[in-house]
Design a protein that fits this description.
By secondary structure, the protein is of the alpha/beta class. The protein is 36% helix and 26% strand. Strands 6-7-8-3-9-10 form a 6-stranded mixed β-sheet, with helices on both faces. It has a 4-stranded antiparallel β-sheet with strand order 2-1-4-5, covered by helices on one side. The longest helix is centred in the last third of the chain and has 16 residues. The mean pLDDT is 90.
Length: 231
């Protein structure tokens, strides 16, 4: 589904990613884990074409997408929920979702499906996004991305700063999308959240691969997390 092959990325003269390689299959949740500054958010931006690659490539369903302009990549079926959500806060919930629908020409049936996943957004449909709680804003950012009917969903720390009930709501939606066959790449600092949803975990450090393991291995042996993360 999504293949990231030996990508190298730099900010100016500082190289951040070094031959980073991984893949995410349809119906799988792969979590990127690493210490702060390991290159996780940079990886997300590189996949979305927001940062140029020095070398390497990104493929979706076998087709190279890393040479496409950034605005074309979501149209191919990649939804991205960045850290900080990036909503149009002065617009209503309905208008934010409409932007997501327009991006890939989705119809009313997609709208109804998204609102079924997030019933609280239906209640807030005509409120401005800036009036929502942090958890509701995260729901809206996720709903907008799902309007693309994505094959692949990228989430960058979706539970950051949320209360437990909101974390559980987001976790349930991520699991539903995985069960529908969506490939999910998750960046998450909360180890408990990772272990509750991930199928595999890829550890990175200084922009390089360390190892990729089945999440069941980590659930059984927490010393691996201690070795890589110090937790």
């Amino acid at each position: 589904m999504l293949e990231v092959s030996a990508i190298n990325v730099a900010y100016g003269h500082a190289q951040i990613l070094r031959d980073l390689t991984f893949s995410v299959k349809a119906g799988e949740i792969l979590c990127l884990l690493g210490r702060n500054g390991a290159g996780k958010t940079t990886t997300m931006k590189a996949i979305m074409g927001l940062l140029p690659l020095l070398s390497g490539e990104v493929r979706l369903d076998g087709q190279k997408i890393s040479s496409l302009p950034a605005h074309q990549i979501p149209k191919g079926g990649i939804g991205y929920i960045p850290q900080g959500r990036r909503l149009f806060t002065e617009l209503t919930v309905a208008q934010n979702i409409e932007i997501g629908l327009m991006a890939r020409g989705s119809g009313r049936e997609v709208l109804h499906d998204v609102l079924a996943l997030f019933p609280r957004l239906r209640e807030r449909f005509h409120q401005r996004a800036e009036t929502l709680s942090g958890g509701e804003q995260q729901m809206l950012a996720t709903a907008r991305a799902l309007c693309l009917r994505p094959k692949v969903l990228l989430l960058d720390e979706p539970t950051e700063g949320l209360q437990p009930s909101m974390i559980e709501a987001i976790r349930e939606v991520i699991t539903v999308m995985r069960d529908r066959g969506v490939a999910i790449l998750l960046v998450e600092q909360r180890v408990d959240a990772v272990l509750s949803v991930a199928d595999r975990v890829a550890f990175i450090e200084n922009g390089q691969n360390l190892e990729t393991l089945d999440a069941d291995v980590l659930r059984a042996d927490h010393t691996i997390l201690e070795r890589h993360l110090g937790v």
